[in-house]
């Protein structure tokens, strides 16, 4: 299997599939394809679990708690498939060699190989971060993630403090903890809120932009409910 990124600001993933090779992608990610590619849509984990009810329960859990799709599209070669991430930003490939990686919700795009996707519970930490789960990918294979903005690969040697909303992915065995940003004044007025302190040595993928400020900026130009009611009465 060969792959490459095409495009600059908002790249797409180009994957060349040999006979019998399979590529799993989130629903709606396919941009175009060519060759004798076979396509199937499966319930997440159904092939691995062999238990429809259990697979459905886990897939629905990911949909409700992590925002992920319930189904995967499976592309089997020979042929070429282009995948377009849902987020307007960077794409990064993570090679998984028998370990587990934790990925923020909405960043998963596609994978290949013997990878198992599951929920990664944040535990009490998630209450501070605003959500309770990430995704966990374990096994052998490759994983593509995307983000809003670009993606940076950061090698943490000792310790590093990262805004929680800038996380994209990190090894599942990484040591981290949630803490307030600075003192009480900085926590309330500094705009960061909670941050995550990561202990090295480890690797962390972070995104250069986050969606809430964009959503807030767009909301300023959206007509309010009262304005709509006023115009309706004119």
UniProtKB/TrEMBL annotation:
Xref: InterPro entries: AIM24, AIM24_sf, Trp_RNA-bd_attenuator-like_dom
Listed Gene3D superfamilies: Mitochondrial biogenesis AIM24 (3.60.160.10)
SUPFAM superfamilies, A to Z: TRAP-like (SSF51219)
Top-level lineage group: Archaea
Protein name: TIGR00266 family protein
């Amino acid at each position: 299997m060969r792959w490459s990124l095409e495009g600059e600001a908002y790249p797409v993933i180009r994957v060349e599939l040999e006979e019998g090779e399979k590529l799993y992608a989130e629903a709606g990610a396919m941009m175009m394809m060519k060759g004798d590619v076979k396509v199937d849509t499966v319930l997440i984990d159904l092939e691995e679990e062999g238990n429809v009810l259990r697979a459905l329960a886990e897939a629905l859990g990911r949909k409700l708690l992590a925002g992920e799709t319930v189904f995967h599209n499976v592309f089997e070669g020979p042929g070429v498939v282009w995948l377009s991430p849902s987020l307007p930003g960077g794409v990064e490939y993570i090679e998984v060699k028998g370990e587990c990686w934790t990925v923020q919700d909405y960043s998963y795009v596609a994978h290949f190989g013997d990878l198992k996707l599951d929920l990664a519970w944040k535990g009490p930490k998630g209450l501070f971060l605003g959500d309770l789960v990430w995704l966990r990918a374990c096994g052998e294979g490759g994983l593509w993630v995307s983000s809003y903005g670009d993606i940076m690969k950061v090698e943490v040697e000792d310790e590093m403090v990262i805004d929680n909303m800038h996380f994209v992915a990190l090894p599942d065995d990484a040591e981290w903890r949630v803490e307030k940003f600075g003192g009480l004044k900085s926590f309330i007025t500094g705009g960061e809120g909670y941050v995550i302190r990561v202990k090295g040595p480890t690797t962390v993928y972070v995104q250069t932009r986050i969606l809430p400020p964009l959503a807030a900026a767009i909301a300023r130009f959206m007509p309010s409910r009262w304005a709509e009611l006023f115009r309706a009465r004119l």
